[in-house]
Structures are given as C-alpha cells and as structure tokens.
Amino acid sequence: MANSITAAPAVLAEGVLSTLKNKLPVLSGISTVFSTRPGTAGMSIQVPLIGVSTASSFGASGYLTGDDATVTSSTISLGHYKVSSRFTPSNLREYGSQFFVNNFVNTASIALAQKVMDLINAQVTAANYSVSSTTGTNLTYAELVTVQNTLDDAKAPSPRYSVLKSSYIADLRQDTQIVGNNVLGAQIIRDGDLGIIAGARVYQFANLATNSENLAGWVAGPDAIAFATALPETDIPGWEVANAIDADTGLGVQVIMGQEQSGYLNVTCTLLAGCSVGRASSLVRLKTA
Amino acid sequence: MTIEEQLNDALAASVTLAVERDDLRATVEKLTVGAADELTAIKAEVSAKDARNAELTAAVDGLAADNVTLKALVAELQAGKVSASKEAAKIAASVGVSPVQISPADAEKASPEAVDHVAAFLALPVGSVERSAYFKAHKTVIVQGIF
Q1: Are A15 and A110 in contact (CB under 8 A)?
Q2: Are B143 and A101 inside 8 Å of each other by CB?
Q3: A226 within 8 A of A46, measured Cβ to Cβ
Q4: A34: which chain B residues are within 8 Å (Cβ-Cβ)?
Q5: Which is it for strands A44-48 and A73-77: parallel, antiparallel or unpaired?
Q6: Which of A6, A158, A227, B123 is most deeply packed, by most CB within 10 A?
C-alpha cells in the first residue's frame, strides 16, 4: 500500500477539481479556454469568442473569403490565485486523512469558485456593457422576456445564460407565469431548479457584487465574456506538486504541499485565471435602480 | 303307444328339430357376418399401423443420416479446435507480451483489500477520463490510503 503522504497532492487536486467543476456550471455557457500549459501571473491567453457567422453567395473569389467576421477573440491576462491551509502534524494524526481531505477540498473549492465568479462579476459594468434593464427590486418573467428581445435584436448567439442574485431567483420561483405553467411549474415547485427561462439557463450567484451600479444580475450570450485558466509553473524544492485536469473541459487545478520550517504542513490549491470583455452587445445588465 | 301316436310324436320332434336347426342357422349366419366385420376392422387397423410403421422407419432413417452428418461435423471442429490458453498465448505473442507459465485468469484473484487503490489512481494519466472515474469510484479508499 502506497500510504505515503507524497500521494496526497494528487488526491487533493482531484477532489478539489471534481467539486469545483460542480460549483461552476456557468462556465459551460461562456467562451472559455482552459489551458494546461504551465505559466505565471500575467501570462496571456487568447480566447476565441463563440459567435454567429453569416453565409454569403459563392462568387468569383470562390471559397477564399471569410464569412466568420463575428468570430473574434479576446486576449486575457491571467492572475495567480491560491487557497492555502496549514495543518499541524498532530492535527493529521488526530483527525485522519478523511478529515484532512474533506476539510481542504471543501475550503479550496468554495474559495476558488467564489474567486472565479468574482472575476466574471467584476467585468459586468456599465463601462464594459452599456445595455441595461432596470428590473427593480423584484424580477418578473415578463422582464426577462423583454431582455431576451433586446438580445435577439443584438443578434446575441445561443445558448444564453442568466446569472441572478438570490432574491431574483426567489422572485422567479414565485412568478405565477412560470410556476403556473403545467410543464415548468411542477418541476420548479419540487426542486427549485428554474432551468431555462426566456431562452437563458438560469444560475444563482448568492454573493453577486453590485459593482456600485445596482447590479442584480445579467443575461448574456456565450460571446459576451471570455474566461481562461492555466496551471502555474511551480517548483519548490522538497514540496510535492500535483495537477488535476478535467477531461471534459480541460479545467485544471494544482495542489502543492510541503512542510514549513515552523512544522506546519502547508497545503495550497492554486490556479491561473482571468476574464475579459467579449462582445459587449451580447450582455444585458439587470439593475435594481 | 299306437302307430299314430308315434307318428305324431315324430312329427312334433321333427318340427322342434327344424326350429332348432333354423335358430342354429340364424346364429351361425349372424356370427359369420360379425366375424367378417371384425376381420375388416382388424385389417384396416393393421393397414394403418403398417403405414405408420413405414412413416416412422423413414423418420428414423432420416435421423440416422443426420447423426452421421453431425458426427462428421464434430470431428471436423475438433480437428480445428485451439485451446483458449494457446489462443491467449498467441495473442500475447502478437503484441509483444512475454508468455507466462500460468494464466493470470487461473491464478488466485486478489482480494479487494489487497488492491492498492492509491497506486492504481496515481498510475493513470492526469487529465484522463479513467483517472477521474477511478477517483470517484474509490474515493474513500484512496483518501484513507494517502497516509
């Protein structure tokens, strides 16, 4: 049995990744590049934006013309983010590996998920996305349909998504036009999952920042925001380093672990991540005032 | 007894005998007819049995022929049969694996407790579906095995 602590970073990284992936379903709706290339803070990654193309008439130039003018890219400068926990050797002996892993996996995945959502949230400002809808204290289905129409007019591509603060989610769960629907209503009453409303998959963000602009949520197409991650290049003598990479998306995290001079066992989960504005007209901000 | 009386008795006896004769004749005729009918029925039954017998004989002959064919087929298959271990050795040789003396399938299977799940997990390539799936399937044991 390889009961060496050198195996711990790989196990922790895999645990953090599987939990983190479940906490960030919104990433499936936006333009992303998850690179496994090692890098450092400031590393640039170009993210192609998911857009729409138009077919043109075949002419004298044959096929040598581009019809994908709407497919552009956004360059992102990555930041380096980390979550560190310190355990004493007696902690480990007393509580065992199960406590050690569960404690760290939950702490790290929650913190990293929050950081990723904060990065995305910070982009949603009037300076970056000028179109907004003042939906007030409470959000209704009719207001989401109006926003849907705005995005339709702007030719924002699908699949779209909406990120809403918790009270807006609660408003939709009580909206009689939604819960009164025979098909949608029963499911929402049972498990509270709103699914897709007015053409956009609904995600809740409990810690949504207002950005000092009364921001309460947003509805967007996949080309509105570009997001990228990469794995840090870590080489600390005597410390164990392990990566975990999701086979489906390429999202990766790194866990490093080593004994500090003080005797503490330092366990750190880290990743490079960044976010930037994509196609500005593909996002509508929802404001309380 | 007078001659007349004796004649009357003889006549009476003659009549009685004639009646008995007629009864006997009728009985004999009746028996003859019944026997003929019975004989006809028996003949028909024998005839039907003969037909069935011929039918079964033909079927048995057919089965015997099939039996011969199947025996020939079995002999042919046995002649071309390759044992599973020989075939496994051939496959192993074709992919460059050194043949082993004892087939792993024949060896005593390792108990679940003896499997080093941590080592098995670490051996899988980072970023592979198999690694994630193995972690999910054996998470508790892997976590317990790290120290």
Answers
A1: no
A2: yes
A3: no
A4: none
A5: antiparallel
A6: A227
What's the one-letter identity of residue A202? V
| One domain for residues B18 and B59 | yes
CA distances from B25 to A192, A204, B30, B32, B36 (A): 110, 119, 8, 10, 16
Question: What pLDDT, on a 0 to 100 scale, did the predictor assign at position A57?
Answer: 79
8 Å CB contact of B132 and A5: no
> Right CATH number for A132-224+281-287 from 1.10.10, 3.30.2320, 3.30.420, 3.40.30?
3.30.2320
> Does B147 contact A1 at a Cβ distance shorter than 8 Å?
no
The Cα–Cα gap between A288 and A211 comes to 12
Q: Tell me whether residues B127 and A1 touch, CB distance under 8 A.
A: no
Q: Measured between alpha carbons, how far is A90 from A85 in angstroms, rounded to an integer? A: 15
Question: Each residue of B80-93: pLDDT tens digit?
Answer: 665 555 665 666 66
Our CA-based measurement puts residue A36 at a distance from the nearest CA of chain B, in whole angstroms, of: 9
Asked if the C-beta of B115 comes within 8 angstroms of chain A's C-beta atoms, the answer is: no
Contact yes or no for A227/A271 (Cβ under 8 A): no
pLDDT band with cut points at 50, 70 and 90 for residue A55: confident
Name the more confident of A127 and B147.
A127
From 3.30.230, 3.30.2400, 1.10.4030, 3.30.70, which CATH number describes the A7-48+74-124+226-275 domain?
3.30.2400
Tally of structural domains, chain B: 2
- Which secondary structure element, helix H or strand E, spans residue B53, and what is its range? helix B3-80
Residue A69 has pLDDT above 80, yes or no: no
A18 closest CB neighbour out of B118, B136, B146: B136
Q: Which residues contact A144 (CB under 8 A, 6 or more apart)?
A: A162, A172, A197, A198, A200, A219
Q: What confidence tens digit (pLDDT) does each residue in B105-123 have?
A: 555 555 655 788 888 998 9
Cβ distance A101 to B147 under 8 Å?
no
Average pLDDT for chain B = 81
